[in-house]
TrEMBL record:
The keyword Transmembrane helix applies. This is Nickel import system permease protein NikB. It is a multi-pass membrane protein. Keywords: Cell membrane, Ion transport, Membrane, Nickel, Nickel transport, Transmembrane, Transmembrane helix, Transport. The chain crosses the membrane at residues 9-29, 102-125, 137-160, 172-191, 281-302. InterPro entries: BPD_transp_1_N, MetI-like, MetI-like_sf, Nickel_NikB, Opp2B. It comes from Metabacillus litoralis.
Length: 314
C-alpha cells in the first residue's frame, strides 16, 4: 500500500513540470507580446524603449531554459507575477476568488451525488421500470441542454416569475441554489447512467450468486456488496469532474454573476492579462492532478485489490 501511494505521489512531479513548461511556453507561442499587453492595460503608449524595458523586467530577454527555471522557482514560492490590470499580485487575487468557486463546486457535487446515487442504483436494480425510464430521460436532457441555457431557464422561472431565489451575486444559501443546480444537472445525468450500468454488471457477477446461496439477505447484498463495488466508476468520474468544476465554472459564473475564479479568468482573457491566464492554467492542471490522486486513494480504500495489482505489476 505504501509503495502504491508513493508511486502515485511521485507521478505528480513530471506532470507538474510539464504543466509549468506549457505555461512558460505560452508566452513564446502566443502572438501577444506580454510587454505590449502590460503597457496597453496600463494605458501607456508602447515605444521601442519602454517595450525593451518591460521585456527585461519580465525576464523575457533571457533564454527560454532560464525563464523556465525561474518560473518553477517563482511558482514554488506562489509568485505568479503582477496582474496587468489591477497591478496587484495574481496569487492574492486568486486566493480571494477561489473560495467562491470552491463553494459552488462543492454545492453542485453534493446535489449530484445526493440525486444520482439513489436514482442510478434503483434504475439498475429495477431495470425497465418507471424509475429506469425516468433516469434515461434525465440523462438525455442532461446531455442535451447547454449549461448557460439551463441557467437562464432557472433564472426565468425561479427568480423572475416565482421570485424564490436571487438572480445574481453571492452571500446566502439562496444565492447558491440555482448555479449549483445548473452545474449539477449534467453531472446527475452522467453519474446516474454510470452507476446504473455498473450495478447491472455487478448483479451478473458470481459473488452475488454465492452471497444468495449463503442465505445473506438481499438488502445486505445490495448495500454492502453490489453498491460498494458498483460505485467505483462513479467515484472516478467525481474525481475527474472535481478539477473540472473548480476551473470550468466559467459559463455558470458569468450567467449568475458569481465572483469566482472562472469569471476572473474570463476577464483576464478579454484584458490580455497573461500572468492571470498562466496562473489559471497551472492551477487547473494542479487541481486535476490532486483530484486524480485522491480518487486513486479512495478507490484503493474501497477495493484493496487495486494496490495488490500494482504490486504484481512491479
Amino acid at each position: 500500500m505504501g509503495t502504491f501511494i508513493l508511486k502515485r505521489i511521485l507521478s505528480i512531479i513530471p506532470v507538474f513540470l510539464l504543466a509549468t513548461l506549457l505555461t512558460t511556453g505560452m508566452i513564446h507561442l502566443s502572438p501577444v507580446d506580454p510587454a505590449e499587453a502590460y503597457l496597453t492595460a496600463a494605458h501607456i503608449q508602447p515605444t521601442d524603449e519602454n517595450l525593451a524595458q518591460k521585456r527585461q523586467e519580465f525576464g523575457l530577454d533571457q533564454p527560454f531554459f532560464i525563464q523556465y527555471l525561474n518560473s518553477i522557482k517563482k511558482i514554488c514560492q506562489f509568485d505568479f507575477g503582477i496582474s496587468y490590470v489591477s497591478n496587484k499580485p495574481v496569487w492574492d487575487e486568486v486566493i480571494s476568488r477561489i473560495p467562491a468557486t470552491i463553494q459552488l463546486a462543492l454545492g453542485s457535487l453534493f446535489i449530484a451525488v445526493f440525486v444520482s446515487i439513489p436514482l442510478g442504483f434503483l434504475a439498475g436494480v429495477k431495470k425497465n421500470t418507471a424509475i429506469d425510464h425516468f433516469s434515461r430521460v434525465l440523462a438525455f436532457l442532461g446531455a442535451s441542454i447547454p449549461s448557460f441555457w439551463l441557467g437562464y431557464l432557472l433564472i426565468l422561472f425561479f427568480s423572475v416569475k416565482l421570485d424564490l431565489f436571487p438572480v445574481e451575486g453571492i452571500g446566502t444559501w439562496q444565492h447558491l441554489v440555482l448555479p449549483s443546480v445548473t452545474l449539477a444537472f449534467p453531472l446527475i445525468a452522467i453519474y446516474t447512467r454510470l452507476l446504473r450500468a455498473s450495478v447491472l454488471e455487478n448483479l451478473e457477477e458470481p459473488y452475488v450468486l454465492y452471497a444468495r446461496t449463503r442465505g445473506i439477505s438481499e438488502k445486505s447484498i445490495m448495500a454492502k456488496h453490489v453498491l460498494r463495488i458498483a460505485i467505483s466508476p462513479m467515484i472516478t468520474g467525481l474525481g475527474m469532474n472535481l478539477g473540472k468544476l473548480l476551473t470550468g465554472t466559467i459559463i455558470v459564473e458569468a450567467v449568475f454573476s458569481w465572483p469566482g475564479f472562472g469569471r476572473y479568468f474570463i476577464d483576464a482573457i478579454f484584458n490580455r492579462d497573461i500572468p492571470v491566464i498562466q496562473c489559471y492554467v497551472l492551477i487547473g492542471a494542479s487541481l486535476f492532478i490532486i483530484s486524480n490522486l485522491l480518487v486513486d486513494l479512495i478507490q484503493m480504500y474501497i477495493d484493496p485489490r487495486i494496490s495488490r495489482k500494482e504490486g504484481y505489476k512491479q
